[in-house]
Amino acid sequence: RGWMDRSVVNETLSRPLSMMAFPPLRLILNIIIIIIATSSTAAASTRSLVFDVNRKSASTLFLAAKQATTTTTTTTPLLSSPPKKRWPRPCQSSSSSSSEDSSSAAALFCDPTLPLATRIKLFRLHLSVEERADFLGHDNQWHQWWSEGLHGVASSPGVRFQEPTPCATSTAMPILTSSSFNDTLFHEVGQVVGKEARVFVNVGNGGGVTFFAPNINIFRDPRWGRGAETPGEDPLLNGRYAKAYVTGLQTNYSLSATCKHYAAYSLENWHNVTRFEFDAEVTLTDMADTYLPAFRECAAAASSVMCSYNSVNGMPSCFNAPLMRQLASYDFKNGYTVTDCTAIDWSQQYHHTTPTRGEATMLALQAGIDVNCGDNYQQVIPLLINNDTLSVDVLDRAFDKAASVLFRLGYFDPPGTHPALDALGPKDVDTAHARQVAVETVAQGVVLLENKNRALPLSKEKTKTILVAGPQADDAQMQLGTYAGIACSVSTLLGGIRKYLKGEQTEVLYAKGCLSGVSCTSTEGFDEAEKMASRADVIVVGLGINKTVEAEFLDRTELTIPGHQEQLLDVLRSAAPEGTPIVVILFSGGPVDTRKVSQAADALMWAGYPGQAGGDVLAPMLFGDGAPTGKLTQTWYHADFAKEVSMFDMHMRPRPPSYPGRTYRFYTGNPLYKFGHGLKYEDSEVDYFDSSLRVTRSGPKQKHSSLSLRISLRNEGSRDTDESVLVFHEPPRAVPSKQRWWTAPPQRTLVAYKRVALKAGSTIDVDLAIPDDRVLAVGGHLAVDTLRIDISEMVLK
Question: Quick one: pLDDT at residue 419?
């Protein structure tokens, strides 16, 4: 690349090209480049072959690979990686190593006793300009930057599920885990992912130590296809989830977590507008108090931040220098930035910011993007340098930042340097502890939405025949959700009930009902379900949606349950003997309108996408061996919301005359279920009966103030339970004529939370710190369950 004819270089930079980093395509490219460099006649005849590659074809290939990272649960290798290939580790030679590997192992930069800056410089000098640029693409000979680990080690270009690591632990998706409001659990999830990821790296089934997780974007619209990947709609919760998960993944296992997607990203493909072309128009106030706070927390802990596909106020995120510079204020000092995959090419094509790949690459580098998930940097940077358009210093700054992370993680250290890490092997995957963490993400996250006439818990003694029905009742793939790998085992709702009732004098019947799955396009199969319902003492129905309805690339257009699922429930209700309890387990990431379901069901429980342990937790919980304690981390809207509110509108605050606002903090309508909603079984009701509040002042001249709140709780039931204490701040009501809608304060904001355990009949005091000075500055009330604590007098003091 470095010795091509200058006219060919100019031609390359001026053509809009999206050529992905697939080895077959790159091999063809390299062959043609050699021909171009050795024959001017050949150059004239082959440029169109190289640089006029149909953009749609190349894009389609890449999208297929990207889609595979969100859906693949087989051992089919992604991209073009050959089966059973093991990734070599730099600086680790063996008798089977190639001469190139052995040479790198003997290189001075492999010496861990040298200062970090010296090792980075030696590594840089070890490589040519072309090789340095290649290092900054996700797929290169030294390191695979693109691995996934959202809720378990996941199928991705940097991960291979094959012996000796054919599977990994799959916890619940974050939207369910976050409903526990348990920072300790979030940290444990990160640790499970980190430990197993390190095993994959150690045995050669992991190509790198950088993982593109967590997703901490605000779940601002219920139709967003990727909402299940996030902790929810609240900035505080998303930030604390991010910090806990990141520290869990990184701390003990020398791995890198990536905060994504920066920023204001929450649209996939709605009304034929995709994330690649969407311009998120965001007010400064919404950006400051909604879209960025979670990234402030995450960036201070993580070693990487990923820029998003969308534009923010007219500028693509990956070209947005002011937005990227803001990371420095978040104490993000020693990490690297990375594009979402092929974002540079997509930004050039769809946002029309610049006409050429060369200029697009320059914009990304100038914005401070260090690594390109894709092949743009690999192909274009050497040409820019050869054309005297780009200084080598710019390349080296990005190279040093990216390399420094890998050196700090010990990726370039020789064997024996980190014996504790090296000792991790296949025995450390799917351990008893990891399986228990997967259980807890479900047990602590499941939310009881409705429970009429104490239908739950069910009586095992009275249940002689139970019907398990519905398209979601026995769907293992659905439970794993998106960005999943291959779970070592999966317990479905049906499987869990059969296992739980094994040995009992109970007959377990099963009828899928909707033979076409969640789409439920016909009533074929209803007759069989109807006959079985007439024999049942109890009916448990699995309904909802899955990744064919909501996923990456796929937003919803409505909030109703698909097809004839609700009709199936009506058929079961009509056929069931009088008094037969019907319990619906709802599986989904985003909210759905459940009003029709509630009319036919006696109890309704939301289980998100529960991962491998779903059935093992839900079955005992239905019969009282365990109880739901989760609380919703999203507002659930009526179906009309999807008809009245555009997904394109990024405003959080309500706007005259008819825009109702978004999320519990601003929505002025009447939600179906509120943020924080979650019932308990009646034998574990918790009473909030007292509170006290004090102000703590600290800092120079005692200028910094924080609130310390004590809440007294009593478990009035006969069952031990957990309770998530949520503290909201409610500011004083402003005079409408004095207030501009785009700067109006939230109606209420979560300012503290803590999950606690309460023994049956016990009373405890819960202490919570509220460090936000703005709460005292504004005044108003703190709201905790039914308690309202006036803080106005403290403001005056």
Answer: 95
Residue 458 has what DSSP assignment? P
Structure tokens at 712: 């007294």
Let me know how long the chain is. Answer: 797
Catalytic (active site) residue 393: no
What token pair was written down for 248? 């869990």
Whether 2 shows a pLDDT value over 50: the answer reads no
Burial class (CB in 10 A: 0-12, 13-18, 19+), 328: exposed
Measured distance CA(378)–CA(22) in Å, rounded: 12
Enclosing H/E stretch for 686:
strand 686-698
Query: What residues contact residue 533 under an 8 Å CB cut-off, 6+ apart?
Result: 467, 469, 511, 539, 571, 572, 575, 576, 580
**Closest to 722 (Cα-Cα) out of 349, 323, 355, 443:** 443
Q: Please identify which of the residues 101, 279, 289, 340 carries the catalytic annotation.
A: 340
> Which structure tokens are listed for 233?
């709609």
CA torsion sign for 365, 366, 367, 368 is positive
Residue 7 makes CB contacts below 8 A (sequence gap 6+) with 43
* Closest of 469, 432, 476 to residue 615, by C-alpha: 476
Give the number of other Cβ atoms within 10 Å of residue 286's Cβ: 23
Token digits for 229? Answer: 């990947």
Does the pLDDT of residue 88 top 50, yes or no?
yes
- One-letter identity of residue 797: K
pTM: 0.89
pLDDT of 698-748, one tens digit each?
666 556 677 889 999 999 999 999 999 999 999 987 655 556 888 899 999
Q: Residue 510 — φ and ψ, nearest 5°?
A: -140, 130
Percent of the chain beyond pLDDT 90?
78
Please list, in sequence order, all residues whose beta carbon lies within 8 angstroms of the beta carbon of residue 457, skipping any fewer than 6 positions away.
621, 622, 623, 624, 627, 681
The CA-to-CA distance between both ends of the chain, in Å, stands at 70
